Each structure stands twice: as C-alpha cells, then as structure tokens.
Amino acid sequence: MAASFFFSIIHHVKRPPRSRPRQVLTERDVLQLVGIRPPSGLHASLVSAADRDAGAAEKLRLIDDAFADAKSRHPKTASLDAKLSDYKRDLEEQLRAEMRQRLEYLRETEIARVKMEERRRREEAELTRRADAFEL
After folding, report:
1. Is the model's pLDDT at 14 over the cut of 60?
2. Which secondary-structure segment (H or E) carries 33?
C-alpha cells in the first residue's frame, strides 16, 4: 500500500515544458527524494513491490501483444462479427413475430370473451323480459 502511495507521487511530479527534454524519475529516485535509504526495510519492501508490479505489467503487455498478433493472423473475426449480427437480427425478427402472434391471440380471446359476455347479458335480459311478461 505504501508502494502505491509513493508511486502515485511519480504521476504528480510537475512535468517540464515540452521544449525541454523530459527527465523521467524512477521509483528508486522518488524513494531517495522522499528520504528512504537503501538499507531500510521499508526501502527493500517498496523496491520489491515495484519490481513485482513491473513484472506483472510486462506479463500483461506480452499477453496483449500475443492477442493482437493472434487476432491479426485470424481475419475470421470480421465474418464472426457479421454472423453474430445476422443472428441477432434473426432473433429480433423471431421475437417480433412471436409478440405479434401473442397479441393476435390475446385480441381474439378478448373479443370472444366480450361477445360471450354480451350474449349472456342479452339472454339474461330476454329471460327477465319473458319472466316479467309471464307474470302479467
């Protein structure tokens, strides 16, 4: 954690104007500027943490380079992207068709329900009218 604090100082060092050549400070330079001397345990742990971070960064750069190289050797990714786009378009069209079918089904069943309800009301009204006529 202390290593990240000291290394963040590097990023905040005021940079000279572009007309002059840049002076790059290393982690060891920053540690010396801060006053942490090489024989101390803190210096040793910070330097080893910096070395580990540099090693990890180098490994990540190598992985990125390998991926970029592999991608350039395999131009199939463009066709894969096109296939994925076509597949997505097909799925969207299938979904739209399915939604149209569902809406049509709901509309038909709702219309049938309304017709049955109106028929039931007419029959009840007719029964009521006949019962009233019979009572007279």
Report:
1. no
2. helix 27-34
pTM: 0.37
Q: Could you tell me the residue ranges of all domains in the chain?
A: 1-74, 83-136
d(CA 9, CA 16): 16
Residue carrying the six token digits 């309800």: 117
What is the amino acid identity at position 41?
Answer: G
> What is the Cα–Cα distance from 7 to 26, expressed in whole angstroms?
9
Question: Which pLDDT score, from 0 to 100, does residue 65 have?
Answer: 82
Q: Please tell me the distance from the alpha carbon of residue 59 to that of residue 46, in angstroms, as a whole number.
A: 20
Is the backbone of residue 15 left (phi > 0), alpha (psi -120 to 50) or beta?
A: beta
- What amino acid is encoded at 23 in this protein? Q
Q: pLDDT digits over 75-115, tens only?
A: 666 677 788 889 999 999 999 999 999 999 999 999 999 99
Q: Which of 20, 66, 25 is nearest to 8 (CA)?
A: 25
CA distance 58 to 45: 20
